[in-house]
């Protein structure tokens, strides 16, 4: 039985895991135990303060999120992996942010959806382990269940939690995805990394909506990623101007982080930019029909927000764009056939455009 491995066999397996992981495209593999007591307390405090906004699923699974053995019976160790996703910079993201007529999409969503890619690789990694040590119980996760992936990654030595709440690694910055294998094996634990943010507050200072309300604490209700992706209704008026041309997610806290000068570009073809999404014009994106959206976003993380939120977000960005008669005409033409929520944002955008002409 796999759980009867000797210490030397476990150490050998750990070394093999690192080699197998690299062969499958993971840049790092680490192992943690299942004790997430500190993270559990922090999560409950965050939830009690309402910082999760409308993300009810963050609180709907009881203790399963922070106690892995309740989510998957028999879990005794967790294998955590990271995979770089930063696409080659054909278009400088700072340039896009400085050209408000273009739409900014978070770097992680420019290519194909990472969930399927990483899940398939994690299963292959688990099967390689089974070939080496025999049958054992496991389950793979990629942001697909109540899993505290960031605290797990820290315990597994993949990095530390930055003040923006993302995981940072000294050799790779923060542009990477995380995935986990819950297993009933007892495995040797990796050495955690220490915090290296020091006195830096760049991410806090740069946040357009001041969503990082304290070091290591993000109020999702103010975060542009939450507002453009998770929020289903109207975007609060107080945050619309600050959104600028960010139509899906926000990378400002990562773009400013000094540790990301060490970030590595991905070699994964699935994460390469599709449909010129790294520098496409807002009017071009807004002109997509719902079928265009579904077709072009097939296999993309962006597709999950649906056409209504897509149009809502772009309408806000068009309102923030420089005054342009064509923008106003396009917004007016789109209004009659739009959803009520989208209409509200179109009306706001038209008003913003008209204000700019008045000034």
List keywords for this structure.
Leucine-rich Repeat Variant; 359 residues; 2 domains; elongated; 4-stranded antiparallel β-sheet; alpha+beta
Task: Write a structural description.
The chain has helices at 7-23, 37-48, 68-71, 93-97, 114-133, 149-155, 202-206, 224-230, 237-243, 252-255, 282-286, 290-296, 306-320, 325-334, 340-358, and strands spanning 28-32, 77-84, 104-105, 138-141, 160-161, 167-168, 176-183, 212-214, 217-218, 246-248. The chain is 40% helix and 11% strand. It is of the alpha+beta class. The model has no long low-confidence stretch (mean pLDDT 95). The strands form four sheets. The protein has a four-stranded antiparallel sheet with strand order 1-2-7-4, sandwiched between helices. The chain is elongated and about 75 Å long. The chain folds into two domains: 1-274, no CATH class; 281-359, Leucine-rich Repeat Variant, CATH 1.25.10.
Spell out the blueprint of helices and strands.
Blueprint: H1 7-23, E1 28-32, H2 37-48, H3 68-71, E2 77-84, H4 93-97, E3 104-105, H5 114-133, E4 138-141, H6 149-155, E5 160-161, E6 167-168, E7 176-183, H7 202-206, E8 212-214, E9 217-218, H8 224-230, H9 237-243, E10 246-248, H10 252-255, H11 282-286, H12 290-296, H13 306-320, H14 325-334, H15 340-358
Helix pairs in contact: 1-5, 13-15, 14-15
């Amino acid at each position: 039985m796999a759980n009867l491995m000797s210490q030397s066999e476990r150490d050998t397996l750990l070394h093999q895991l690192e080699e197998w992981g690299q062969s499958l495209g993971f840049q790092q593999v680490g192992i943690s135990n299942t004790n997430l007591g500190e993270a559990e307390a922090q999560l409950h405090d965050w939830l009690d303060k309402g910082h999760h906004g409308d993300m009810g699923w963050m609180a709907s699974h009881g203790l399963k999120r922070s106690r892995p053995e309740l989510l998957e019976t028999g879990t005794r160790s967790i294998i955590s992996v990271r995979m770089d996703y930063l696409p080659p910079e054909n278009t400088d993201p700072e340039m896009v942010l400085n050209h408000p007529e273009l739409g900014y999409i978070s770097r992680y969503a420019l290519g194909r959806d990472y969930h399927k890619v990483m899940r398939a690789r994690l299963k292959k990694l688990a099967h390689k382990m089974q070939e080496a040590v025999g049958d054992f119980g496991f389950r793979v996760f990629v942001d697909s269940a109540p899993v505290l992936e960031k605290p797990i990654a820290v315990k597994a030595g993949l990095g530390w939690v930055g003040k923006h709440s993302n995981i940072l690694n000294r050799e790779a910055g923060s542009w990477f995805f995380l995935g986990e294998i819950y297993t009933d094996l007892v495995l040797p634990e990796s050495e955690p990394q220490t915090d290296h943010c020091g006195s830096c507050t760049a991410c806090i200072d740069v946040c357009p909506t001041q969503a990082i309300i304290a070091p290591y604490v993000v109020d999702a209700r103010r975060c542009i990623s939450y507002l453009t992706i998770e929020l289903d209704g109207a975007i609060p008026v107080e945050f619309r101007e600050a959104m600028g041309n960010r139509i899906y997610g926000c990378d400002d806290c990562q773009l400013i982080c000094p540790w990301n000068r060490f970030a590595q570009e991905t070699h994964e073809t699935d994460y390469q930019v599709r449909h010129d999404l790294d520098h496409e014009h807002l009017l071009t994106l807004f002109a997509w029909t719902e079928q265009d959206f579904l077709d072009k976003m097939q296999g993309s993380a962006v597709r999950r927000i649906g056409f209504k939120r897509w149009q809502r977000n772009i309408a806000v960005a068009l309102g923030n764009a420089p005054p342009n008669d064509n923008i106003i005409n396009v917004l007016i033409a789109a209004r009659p056939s739009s959803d009520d929520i989208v209409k509200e944002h179109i009306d706001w955008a038209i008003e913003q455009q008209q204000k700019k002409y008045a000034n």
